[in-house]
Amino acid sequence: MFGFKEAGIVGINKRNLDFVLAHNRRKFYPNADSKLKTKEIALSLGLNVPDLFANIRYQYEVKQFEDIVQPYDKFVVKPDRGSGGDGILVIIEKVMAGYKKASGNIMSRQETRYHLQNMLSGMYSLGGHDDTIVIERMVEFDPIFDEIAYQGVPDIRLIVLEGKVLMGMLRLPSKASDGKANLHTGGVGVGIDMDTGITTTAIQRNRYIDVHPETNKPLTGRQIPYWKDMLDMATKMQKASGLGYIGVDIVLDKNKGPMILEINARPGISIQIANQCGLLSRV
Predict the structure, then answer these.
(1) Is residue 5 part of a domain?
(2) Residue 16 exposure: Cα atoms within 13 Å on the Cβ side
């Protein structure tokens, strides 16, 4: 195990004071906190994003959900101002009993409506305020990740500070994370060498692992495609957002290539553990 102090590890308090508060003006927070606003920014830059199917803003519209998703076999439902992957539904199939999630569990139509009502009421949102439901196309991830992803869609998290990409991590869904790539829900994080785009060390629940818990395939030594393009996309999003310090999440679609998924004005710090390196050493 590497030494935290020697590696320049940034804790939550230091992140908040020296990175978030020092570089992010509050008036620009909505650009990151709203997934719909982030889509607008990315599209204005000519960057790809997952297709937006619909959004639901009012409780009475929840009863229209089945009609809204009727044309689509697979889709993702998320709170517009959610964080950490909370509340997100990754639906891979519609079945007689309801909707099949990436984990294989079935949500009944009644359970789904209740979940959507909670989403609108702000249960999964920053500050607990009323929210909007975003329904978008499920990304068909690049087959290069077939061996090391479980059901859901992997993404690449890049940390950007004032035009410089400091650190990167491949985030992989697992059975524990219910098909989502978020680390705090049980997803797998894999550090990435910034020069080459090749994966290095991997963690799950802050413990180092060598293989994916479901596929049992090695996680390290894998080349991330479009690596230089992703770095360029991340710096463009940081500058356009008005925020100085952000996390940029990029997904790799097998047909459309890299796509901006969302940005985060308060990115988590586990990326340092996955890379065995602190953010301070990269500044």
Answers:
(1) no
(2) 3
Last residue of a domain, one of 75, 103, 137: 137
Q: What is the 3-state secondary structure (H, E, C) of 148-159?
A: HCCCCCCEEEEE
Answer yes or no: do 208 and 107 share one domain.
no
Same domain, 34 and 123: no
For residues 129 and 89, give the distance between their C-alpha atoms in angstroms, rounded to a whole number: 19
* Other Cβ atoms closer than 10 A to 216: 10
Is 4 domain-assigned?
A: no
Count how many residues are written for the chain.
283
Residues 6+ apart with CB under 8 A from 262: 32, 35, 38, 249
Q: Are the CB atoms for 155 and 251 separated by under 8 Å?
A: yes
pLDDT at 19: 96
CB 260 within 8 A of CB 237: yes
Rg, the chain, Cα only: 18
Instruction: Give strand pairing partners of 171.
Output: 155, 189
SS3 content of the chain, % helix, strand, coil (to 5): 30, 30, 40
Domain residues for the domain of 132 are: 52-137
Q: Is residue 2 part of a domain?
A: no
Name the token pair of 45: 């830059």
The domain total for the chain is 2
pLDDT tens per residue across span 114-150: 999 999 999 999 888 899 999 999 998 888 888 898 7
* DSSP-assigned beta bridge partners for residue 258: 252
pLDDT number for residue 277: 93
| Tokens describing residue 33 | 């906190």
Can you state the angle between helices 35-44 and 227-241, rounded to 10 degrees?
A: 110
